[in-house]
Amino acid sequence: MTSLAGLLPVALFLVVALVVAVLARRQAVDGEISGTRGFISEYFLGNRTLGPFVLAMTTIATYGSVSSFVGGPGQAWSIGWGWVYMATVQVTALFLLYGILGKKMALVSRKLGSVTIIDVIRERYQSNVLATLSALIIVLFFATTMIAQFVGGAKLFEAVTGYSYLMGLAIFGIACILFTTIGGFRGVAFTDALCGIAMIVGILVLAGGILSAGGGYENIMDTIAANHPQMMEPLSGGNMPIGLYFTQWLLVGVFTFCLPQSVVRTMSYKDTQSLHKAMIWGTVICGAMMIGVTSLGVLSAGILPGTLEDYGGSVDNIIPTAIVQSLPPWLAGIAIIGPIAASISTVSSLLIASSSAIIKDLWLHRTEVAGTHPTEKTVVRSSQVVTFVIGIVVFALSIVPPEVIWKINMFAFGGLETAFCWVLVGALFWKRANATGALLSMGGGTLAYCVAMALGFKIAGLHQITIGITVALVLMVVGSLASKPTDREALEAFFPEK
Description:
Layout (H helix, E strand, L loop, with lengths): L3 H28 L4 H10 L6 H12 L2 H4 L1 H9 L1 H7 L5 H20 L4 H9 L2 H34 L3 H49 L3 H11 L14 H11 L7 H4 L8 H28 L18 H9 L2 H7 L1 H34 L5 H22 L7 H25 L5 H21 L9 H17 L6 H4 L7
């Protein structure tokens, strides 16, 4: 049965998000530096003016995706508190990002006038081939992640409101594409902040519904202990082996500092004080959100006692079912705003980053080399058209949904971490790193990761990220040491002489 009461809160939220994007863009136009470079800096980086709250919330919203609110909690319903203990590593995500890359990436990008991380990589390694490969990898893995977000949001919409999957996909998918195209980076950052607040509200509403439906926390825990005692154990009766803890900590914790969609945020803040405050606020809020929403997956076992087959055979159906069964329609509509906001914020961030890779890192670079200079009007229109077209292509690919959203998301996470981890670390912290090592690391590591994933090949039962990241590291070291060092002049912005 369709529910108008469940649809209205979502529709209202999307309208507000669109208005925020439009207002942010108008603010940007009023204060924008004239000329092509001014537009590019504003549209793809927000003119480096983000304050601490917006910086923290846009990074959290980009890091948190629909799988954080649907797939992850669904796994926790199946496995128990062990999955929550594993998820605690996500507390470190923003701390590592801002602490390792935050300040130096900002300083270097300002010295170079860089707008994207590919700008930084090109200047550091003096390699157009590496920059092109980086852009292609970003677009490929970002598109994969965006499909998972569209699908997850639309499935959730269908399950809770009763309206069709295609209707849900059309409503929030097109809205997301429009406000990203219109608002640019600044619009994305402000709507991300709005989405972050919506995520918190959604978690609180769902928590209240589950606790009420289950007769309170103690009653729910007693029910779980009686029916599924293994869920109370850290290793969950063998379902959470130490190897799984280790590789998931790497995948969703330690190596997330090098995800391109997050790294670009370190180039956009206003000043050092904004970075320090964002590190504190972001770590606290991100930890509370990720641990909180994953814990709700475990507590859902107290109100959803059946087998997985009873709920459609997929863990992705657990949270939507919990929402429907524990909340009245109008509150259910508010609760789903959280995961839909997570989906939208991730898509918008990846969409603007994909567009910048094509416009700034491929097209405009080629025009500069050729000595041609497109007009500002051409650049403005091209940027918006490319953003819109990428969104529509991903939207079309989402019409036939893939299965198991969190696995798709984790595949993309691993691919991006493998490709960029040692290339970025080498660029900022190792003088001896050069183009040969970076090319071998990015190309060879990503290939090894994808082949291992495709074949299902693992070493000691560990996730394939361990293969990709190790191969990438070895190739970076061997390739850099076996070839000519980078010219001293190219290193000046990265390693200035005292």
